[in-house]
Amino acid sequence: MMSSVETLDGDTERKRLGDKLRQAREYVGFSQDEVGNFLRLPRTAVTNMESGQRKVDALELKRLAELYRQPVTHFTGDDEEVGSTLPTDVAHLARQAAALSIKDREELGRFAEFLQMRATGGR
Q1: Torsion angle of the four alpha carbons 15, 16, 20, 26, in this order, in degrees rounded to the nearest 10
Q2: Positive/negative CA dihedral, 36, 39, 45, 46
Q3: For residues 72 and 60, what is the distance between their CA atoms, to the nearest angstrom?
Q4: 33, 68, 105, 106 - which has most CB atoms within 10 Å?
């Protein structure tokens, strides 16, 4: 039988997961309806996931991670244990860059250097 402490921890974890799912959805600009359609679930199910009122099964989490272009560990918190040091937006850029050709990554690097020089006034 589950103690009240275990129930509270489960509720806290569901709420934390829901917050991360909502933040990821908002970051990529999807509505709850769009996510629901992707998962073939009603919008209310997405609302309940994001509020922590509904459990997210492993297959749903995997599909959401793919949709939001995040590793599953971003949502489970396992990446925090490893000591992820990159901000979320930088990690997103890195994942996108990894899919580019070597030539395109080199061009992206030159563009990043240009932006950095522009920000510092060419110093």
Answers
A1: 40
A2: negative
A3: 10
A4: 68
Q: Domains of the chain, with CATH numbers?
A: 1-85 (1.10.260.40), 86-123 (no CATH)
- pLDDT at residue 83 greater than cutoff 50: no
Q: Contact at 8 Å (CB) between 20 and 74?
A: yes
| pTM greater than 0.90 (yes/no) | no
Tens-digit pLDDT profile for residues 87-103? 778 877 888 887 888 89
The three-state DSSP-derived secondary structure of 20-77 is HHHHHHHHHCCCHHHHHHHHCCCHHHHHHHHHCCCCCCHHHHHHHHHHHCCCHHHHHC
